[in-house]
Amino acid sequence: MDDLKQKYLSRIADAADEAALEDIRLAAVGKKGEVALKMRELGKMSPEERQTAGPALNALKDEINSALAAKKEALMDAALDERLRGEWLDVTLPGRARPMGTIHPISQVTEEVTAIFADMGFSVAEGPQIDTDWYNFDALNIPGHHPARAEMDTFYMHRAEGDDRPPHVLRTHTSPVQIRHMEKHGAPCRIIAPGRVYRADYDQTHTPMFNQVEGLAIDRDISMANLKWVLEEFFAAFFEVDGIKTRFRASHFPFTEPSAEVDIQCSWVDGQLKIGEGDGWLEVLGSGMVHPHVLRSGGVDPEQWQGFAFGMGIDRIAMLKYGIPDLRAFFDSDLRWLRHYGFASLDVPTLHGGLSR
Ligand code: PHE
C-alpha cells in the first residue's frame, strides 16, 4: 500500500496538465483502477486482516483524491496566470492617432452666421430645395414674363407629357422660404434661412449649387435703418473687425422696394484681400424692404406690417473670411483641401467662445 501511495503521489506531482491528471485518476481510483482492484481482494482476506486493510485502503483512496484535487487547482491557477501574462495590456499607453474628419468651411460659416443672428433674436427657418415655380417666382412678385426668370438660369424638373402638376424648380434662391414662413407663422417674425440653391452656371466664382442665407424681419415699424444696423452688426461680428464700413447701393429686386445691394470695405495689398480696411468695395448681398405684393403672397397684411429682407452668399463670405480663392474647390471633395481649410469638429462657433479659430 505504501508503494501504491508513493507511486501515485509522485505521478500526481509530476502531471503536466489536466488531461494527464485524469489519466492518473482513472489508473489509481477509477472503477478499474489499482485501488479498486485491491478493494476486491478484501473478500479473500480473513476478518482480522480485513479490519486493518479496509480502512487503510479507504484512507489511501481519500489521500489520492485530495492530492488530485489540490493538483487540479494548482494547474488551473497556473493556466490563469499564463493567460493573464499573455493578455497583459498597458492601459496607460497613449491612444493611436487616427485620421479624423474636419468640418467643411461652408458648415462652419453657416454655424457662425447662425450664432450671430441668433444673438440678435433671429431663429432658423428652412424650406424645400425643390419648390414650385410659384414659391420661387410668382409669390415673390416675379410673374411669368419677367426677365428675372431667364436671368436666374433656372433648373426645371422634368415633367412627363400630360402631367399637369405645377412646374417644379430647383430653388434659385432662399427667398421662397420668406413666403413659406409667413404663410405658416404670420407676422411679426425674425428669421434667417440658410441653405442650398441652384443655378445653371459654372466658372471660378459660380457653381451650379451654392449656399445662401436669407434674412426676414417683419413688424409694425421696421425700416431700412434697422436693416442697416443689423447688417453692420453682422459684418463686424463675422469678420471680427470693429466699425467695418458698408456701402448701400440702390438696386432692383422684384421682391423688395426700395432695394439695395450691400458692399463691404476692403483693400487689395500685394494680391492679398483685406476686409474692413482700405478704399475698395466688395458686393456681398442683396436686400431691401419687403414688397407689399410679397407680404400679401405670404398672407400678411401690408397695411399693418412691413419689414426688411436680405439674401447673402454663404460661399462668398466664406471665401472672403478664410482666403479661399476658388469657389469650385468647396465642392471638389479634395481631402488635402479639406484638411487645409477644414475646422476641428469640436470647434463649435459661439459668440462667447470665439467664432473662428
Ligand atoms: N434673392 C436674391 C438673390 O438671390 C437676394 C435678395 C434676397 C435680395 C432678399 C433682396 C432681398 O439674388
From TrEMBL:
Note describing how the cofactor binds: Binds 2 magnesium ions per tetramer.
Entry GO terms, CC: cytoplasm
Domain of life (superkingdom): Bacteria
Family annotation (InterPro entries): aa-tRNA-synth_II, aa-tRNA-synth_II/BPL/LPL, Phe-tRNA-synth_IIc_asu, Phe-tRNA_ligase_II_N, Phe_tRNA_ligase_alpha1_bac, Phenylalanyl-tRNA_Synthase, tRNA-bd_arm
UniProt GO molecular function: ATP binding; magnesium ion binding; phenylalanine-tRNA ligase activity; tRNA binding
Cofactor(s) the protein requires to work: Mg(2+)
Keywords, comma-separated and alphabetical: Aminoacyl-tRNA synthetase, ATP-binding, Cytoplasm, Ligase, Magnesium, Metal-binding, Nucleotide-binding, Protein biosynthesis
Database matches in Gene3D superfamilies: Bira Bifunctional Protein, Domain 2
Residues annotated for Mg(2+) binding in this entry: 257
Major localization class: cytoplasm
Catalytic activities: tRNA(Phe) + L-phenylalanine + ATP = L-phenylalanyl-tRNA(Phe) + AMP + diphosphate + H(+)
Pfam (any one): tRNA-synt_2d
Localisation per UniProt entry: Cytoplasm
EC numbers on record: 6.1.1.20
PANTHER family found in the cross-reference section: PHENYLALANINE--TRNA LIGASE, MITOCHONDRIAL, PHENYLALANYL-TRNA SYNTHETASE
Family: Belongs to the class-II aminoacyl-tRNA synthetase family. Phe-tRNA synthetase alpha subunit type 1 subfamily.
Complex formation: Tetramer of two alpha and two beta subunits.
Name of the molecule in the record: Phenylalanine--tRNA ligase alpha subunit
Organism: Thalassococcus profundi
Gene encoding the protein: pheS
